[in-house]
Recover the amino acids of this structure.
């Protein structure tokens, strides 16, 4: 406390005084030594400081010190902290089969990519299944929404000009069958899947490139992540074939998957990070229309 003595002569003056560097250093040293703020305040008062000036000095000093510590920690951390990878769903294609039997169907393996992990499958759905899903979804379509990053709710977004709806998991016979097929293909429990979403794009409608995982830095993600953890994989199923446009693009790797009725495009992302290269979007439909069903897979049971 000696170092402050030169700055205080009487109570009137103290109220005008600035907080000297020495006083700041002393306050920080007390805090680092674990001395309670009330004890520091008492020490300041007993050496002649007015209570209100001392409180202000304490508050400002400790706040500035905290801010400086945060800034130092941020500067020392890697610029872009990458989360640890987690297990993801995947299809049994290690030995490059041309066809795989998934429960009741033979499915063709058309294209695979390692990074991002993308698998394009032919004939994942029958024509009849595609038609049934469109017929069930059609009357329930509404303007598509996206997740509101602030609240975790949903909002209409200009980046997404399709119309859409969600089925409950296992809502009808065909939905249940398709969900079991997805679970068998990817060795991932049915319970970890969100309800199937169906999207309908008219000419000009699109879904601009985006990530499907929830970025934990967004305040709204916490409540979403409580319902089964992160999304770790997406299976898109094309329910019809637009005449032109409507491909699913992966801009980081220049890949475009053609939307062919009955085909499916699977991709996974083992962390909520751009390094997964899982950025993707639905190109604008140029001619005709596009119907697609999306199954998002979570780390754990989705409730
Ligand atoms: O319509 C598409 O091809 C992409 C859909 C999509 O990106 C999604 O549902 O997350």
């Amino acid at each position: 406390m000696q170092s402050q003595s030169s700055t205080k002569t009487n109570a009137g003056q103290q109220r005008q005084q600035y907080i000297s560097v020495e006083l700041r250093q002393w306050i920080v040293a007390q805090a680092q030594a674990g001395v309670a703020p009330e004890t520091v305040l008492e020490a300041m008062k007993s050496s002649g400081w007015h209570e209100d000036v001392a409180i202000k000095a304490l508050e400002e000093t400790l706040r500035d010190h905290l801010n400086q510590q945060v800034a130092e920690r941020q500067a020392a951390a890697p610029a872009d902290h990458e989360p640890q990878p987690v297990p993801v769903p995947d299809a049994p294609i290690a030995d490059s089969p041309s066809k795989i039997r998934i429960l009741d169907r033979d499915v063709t393996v058309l294209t695979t990519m390692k990074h991002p992990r993308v698998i394009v499958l032919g004939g994942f759905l029958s024509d009849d299944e595609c038609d049934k899903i469109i017929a069930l979804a059609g009357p329930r379509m509404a303007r598509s929404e996206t997740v509101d990053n602030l609240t975790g709710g949903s909002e209409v977004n200009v980046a997404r000009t399709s119309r859409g709806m969600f089925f409950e998991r296992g809502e009808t016979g065909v939905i249940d069958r398709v969900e079991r097929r997805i679970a068998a293909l990817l060795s991932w429990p049915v319970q970890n899947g969100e309800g199937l979403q169906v999207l309908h794009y008219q000419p000009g409608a699109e879904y601009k490139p985006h990530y499907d995982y929830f970025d934990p830095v967004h305040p709204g993600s916490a409540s979403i992540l409580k319902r089964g953890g992160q999304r770790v994989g997406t299976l898109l199923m094309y329910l019809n074939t637009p005449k032109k446009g409507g491909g699913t693009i992966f801009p980081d790797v220049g890949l475009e998957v053609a939307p062919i009725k009955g085909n499916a495009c699977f991709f996974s992302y083992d962390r909520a990070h751009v390094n997964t290269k899982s950025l993707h979007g639905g190109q604008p439909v140029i001619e005709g229309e596009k119907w697609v069903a999306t199954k998002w897979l979570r780390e754990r049971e989705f409730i």
